[in-house]
Amino acid sequence: MDILMTVILLLVCLLLSNIFSHYIPFIPTALIQIAFGMIIALLFKKISFEIEAEWFLLLFVAPLLYNDGRHFPREELWRLRSSIFGNAIILVLLTTIAGGYLIHWMLPMVPLAAAFALAAILSPTDPVAVNGIAKRIHIPEKVLHLVRGESLINDASGLVAFNYAVAAVVTGYFSLSEALLNFSFKFLAGAILGLLLGLIVTWIHFILRKQGINDVTFHSLLQILTPFVIFIISEELLHASGVIAVVVAGIIHSLISERTETMIAQEQILVENIWSILLFILNGIVFLLLGLNIPSSMIETVKNPYIGNLRAVSCVIAIGVAILAIRFIWTYAFSYYEYLFAKTKTVEKPDLKTALFISLTGVRGAVTMAGVLSIPYVIMSGQAFPERAFILFIAAGVILFTLVAATVFLPLLSKKESVDGEKQNLMDLKEARGRLLLAAIKKIRLEMNGENEAAAYELMDEYNFMFNQIHPEPNAKEKGSIGYQQKMRSIRLMALKAERKFLHNAVLKDGLDKEIYETFEKSLDHREEVLSNNVRTGMSFLLGRFLRLWFWHRGHSREDEAKRLETFRLGSVIQLQSFQAALEYLEEYARTGEQTEIVQAVIVDYKRLIDRLKRPRIRNNEKTEEQKEELRIKVMDIERSEIQRMFESGEITNDQARELRSFVNYIESITLYEYVE
Question: Which of 124, 494, 633, 658 lies 20 to 30 Å from 151 when distance is taken between CA atoms?
Answer without folding.
Answer: 658
